[in-house]
Design goal:
The complex is a heterodimer. Chain A is of the alpha+beta class. Helices cover 36% and strands 32% of the residues of chain A. Chain A has 13 helices and 16 strands. In chain A, α1 (22-31) packs antiparallel against α2 and α8 packs parallel to α11 (350-357). Chain A is flat. Chain B is an alpha+beta fold. Among the domains of chain B are: 242-459, Rossmann fold, CATH 3.40.50; 472-553, Translation factors (Elongation Factor Tu (Ef-tu), domain 3, Beta Barrel), CATH 2.40.30; 560-666, Elongation Factor Tu (Ef-tu), domain 3, CATH 2.40.30. Chain B is built from 19 helices and 22 strands. In chain B, strands 2-3-1-4-5-6 form a six-stranded mixed sheet, with helices on both faces. Chain B has a six-stranded antiparallel beta barrel with strand order 7-8-14-11-10-15. In chain B, strands 16-20-18-17-21-22 form a six-stranded antiparallel beta barrel. In chain B, α3 crosses α5 (107-116) and α4 crosses α5 (107-116). Chain B is globular. Classes of the chains: A alpha+beta, B alpha+beta. The interface between A and B is large, with 46 and 49 residues. The complex binds guanosine-5'-triphosphate and magnesium ion. Guanosine-5'-triphosphate (GTP) is lined by residues 250, 252-258, 289-290, 293, 306-308, 329-331, 389-390, 392-393, 428-430 of chain B. Chain A: Belongs to the eukaryotic release factor 1 family. Pelota subfamily. Chain A: Its main location: cytoplasm. Chain A: Keywords: Cytoplasm, Metal-binding. Chain A: GO terms for molecular function: metal ion binding. Chain A: It is found in: Cytoplasm.
Chain lengths: 383, 669
Amino acid sequence: MKLVHRDIDKGQGAVTLVPEEPEDMWHAYNLIAEGDSVKSSTIRKVQIESATGSSTSSRVRTTLTITVETIDFDTQACMLRLKGRNIEENQHVKMGAYHTLDLELNRKFSLRKVEWDSIALERIEQACDPTKSADVAAVIMQEGLAHVCLITSSMTLIRAKIDVTIPRKRKGLVQQHEKGLAKFYEQVMQAILRHVNFDVVKCVLVASPGFVRDQFFDYMLQAAVKTDNKLLLDNKTKFMLVHASSGFKHSLKEVLQDAAVMSKICDTKAASEVKALQQFYAVLQAEPAKAFYGKGHVQRANEAQAIESLLISDRLFRCDDVKQRKEYVALVDAVREAGGEVRMFSSMHLSGEQLEQLTGIAAILRFPMPELEEEEEDEAEQE
Amino acid sequence: MARHRDIRNLDYEDEYDGYDDVYGHSVDDDYYISPSNRQFIYNRETSRDSRFEHADDIQEVDEVDELTDIQKAKLNSCMHEIKNTLGTVTISKANLVGLILKYQFNIELVVNAILEDPQFETNDETIKNRGASLTRPSVVDPVPTFVGKVVTSTTTNVVKGFNLPSRDAKLPPKVLELTNKDLTHRVNSTPNAQSPSSGRGQSPASDRVTPECSEGEEKVGRPDLKVDAEAVYKKERGLGKEHLYMVVIGHVDAGKSTLMGRLLCELGQVNKKTMHKYEQESKKVGKQSFMYAWVLDEAGEERNRGITMDVGRHSFETKNKEITILDAPGHKDFIPNMISGAAQADVGLLVVDATKGEFETGFDLGGQTREHALLVKSLGVNQLTVVINKLDTVSWSKDRFDEIVQKLKSFLRQAGFKENNVNFVPCSGLTGQNLIQPPTENEILEWYDGPCLIEAIDKFTSPARPVIKPFRFSVNDIFKGTGSGFCVEGRIETGLINIGDKVMICPSKDQSAVKTIMIDDASKRIAFAGDQATLTLSGLEIQNVSIGNILCDVHYPIPVSNKFEARILVFSVAIPITKGYSVILHHQSLAEQAVITKLISQLNKSSGEVEKKHPRYLRKNSNAIVEITVSKPIALELFSECKELGRVMLRVAGTTIAAGLITRIISAN
Ligand SMILES: Nc1nc2c(ncn2[C@@H]2O[C@H](COP(=O)(O)OP(=O)(O)OP(=O)(O)O)[C@@H](O)[C@H]2O)c(=O)[nH]1
Ligand SMILES: [Mg+2]
């Protein structure tokens, strides 16, 4: 994302941003809240009445400012759609008329908020950080099941899922099995060719249990040679074969913990989130009174200034409830003030998904608070 | 009041029964394993019956509140089913509830009671008529071949005999018509079946599958679905050898495939020419030590690498049994395949490598000896023969044998195996010692005079086959057959199936018909619970069936849901389980992604009582009730209804973290 203009003073004001890649839409999605006003160039269908009274409709490009009422994000297409009422009348659109803005790549938009909190400001910073880790593609597979994913710094996108039945080996009849496997590998290879852009992807992880990855890689190279597929042959060295316990997408977490992978793809956000969550579980195992989850417990720990590191899902800041968001922002600010570390998890990564299931908020404490453990029944009932 | 307490106690016992099954604390295991135990279960049922008779008029609906959730759910589904069946019969809810409780949720019994009781008016006379007509089919049925053969057509759970009034009333009218047609078909297909009325207690198998046999009089009026199915079972299988499925498990390279391959050779199951070919070819790729393993490791990849990747199958006979071996892979990465094999097995053969250091690698933490043993136990395998293999590498040392036996004994006891269900046999698969004949090496003769492997296998006892339950078949493999249609291979968990029967595929609920049935490459007209059969299906595309699907009786479909509660036993996990934990759920041959969405309560390990509600986390060896949400709907059963389909395994990152029993199915949405 490019920051074109910034005019925020004492938490009030506006910024102008240009989304440059699909992931920026995700940042915008996390940035824009209901009630904000967004100004952008857009296309509007207008009715023009001629002198004779007949009317024709045509599409015009115009700049509109709306107060946002609904926000939709299409994760597959990385499209952000904002709907709301027009607040700056122009020749085409009346004041108060509804309009739907689709934010577009490489087209600037201005965002005005009544109040810019620390989380929102941070998001701008994160979005505009030029030192990005490179994109990684990953193929997680087992016999008959494969996921082709794209991992960017704040999103894991499942681009293709191949789920086929491969006949098992049978007494005296292994051909069906082997034919089924070859067909499956072919499908996976086609999915890679379709979804992986080798210009931007630095590394393709192929992960599986057993020998599936090796078999697949052999198959792919042979096929590439046979069909003289330059793309695959030239990018052969980008492939990296690693172990995973299954072809289900959650196994990607194991892959991102693999030391060899880490060194190759550098420390991406996805990998560091996996590590942070793992650490939470490690503490929960070793010293349960130092690891808590759920808003109630975490807030109590915060009151005691006990939080060493806070894991929090960005989903919590996207809620429509302004009061709730404020509470979470205050929590984050307070933890930082007390010298704690805050890790914002992307709900588009697997560990973020898991954190979300775990109430969306967890904390590792500096010192044990066994008294909290006793409160657990009330909290569970509140949920 | 007393009755209520009974209900709860009984329910508790029921659960406790299942509880043992996974956790292995009690002296009693699956009731169908030991006849004495079965007796116990049955007695419990009868005593419950008689107690209910005393408190006959159950009227108040609100008594339902005294039931557990599971019972309530059952009650609701019963009422629904009964209403569907009876259509317009006027009966008050209170009466209905009363009857359902009285007959312990047995729908047919309730329906019979209602139809027989003049107190309840049947507006739709046709229901009665149809019911009656089927009891006297020779009068009514238009198909001439049908006459006089009805008695013989006892091949399915919807078939009827003269002396079994009104049991068909449970079927909705449409179904009855269909049944009529089916019947003719069945009659033709089983011309030899004989009347069930005289069938009691005749066959050797009967005492196992029909606990009811011992007291007939009390059961007057009870529809004899069971007797029918059992009679057919006896008829078909009573004389032959019992068929037993044995999964071969153990750490990678313990010598499982070699042992089995050699055993098959010794038994003459593999012809000399083939064996010679294997010897030559394995030598060529430098894998001669695997030549016997090639009998079972048939895939190219398996042979090249010398590792079993998927379950290999082969059959042979012992003196009293027909055995199908399921040679499981030992490598950690292939445990999902091993689970699908073990889920189909009746008994287990655990192979351990006696070589110095190797036994230890397999047995210590992270080795598959433990995980496999725990898995098969959790999957309902209660009898285990342990082969201490490769004893040739330690010069048949008695000390080594004893050392390993001792370690395994205490571990297996902890894992829940009963001592007298576990046997130990010293062997060498590669040299063929002590497989089908007593050993010849002096070193072992000095100290061993126990059974050889084949004798030990022959001593396994066959579990009861739940043929009287509705048909359930779990799909383990799907492939194209030679003719039209396609084949599904799998295990009949409960019930029986005839050629021509309609089946429903769950969770998709598509329907199909069974065109052919094969067991071990032999064509059959009928197959029963416990059999691993290959069915050719017609009227359906191959893509519409997946591994892990359940085929079931169209009249008694299996529940489908993506959310359920399970009582789990947590194995030794490195990090605690919390809610939100994502796992891979294994259910028979199915593996699906799932999330533990709630930790409901933590239970006391020995009493099963709730220790803590809504625990924050579960550590190793704890027992708990959790809610599990699967990424898509699956076909499943309560453990209390069907043990085979009521078990799940939870795995994370290649290790099994917990085994569970389904205690409540939460319907979708
Ligand atoms: N000395 C000796 N070697 C044996 C014996 N049984 C098997 N082996 C060797 O052990 C190796 C592994 O044998 P397999 O039969 O493939 O072992 P497995 O348990 O089937 O292995 P997986 O299926 O891959 O888990 C082979 O090299 C065999 O020759 C034995 O009784 N004595
Ligand atoms: Mg093997």
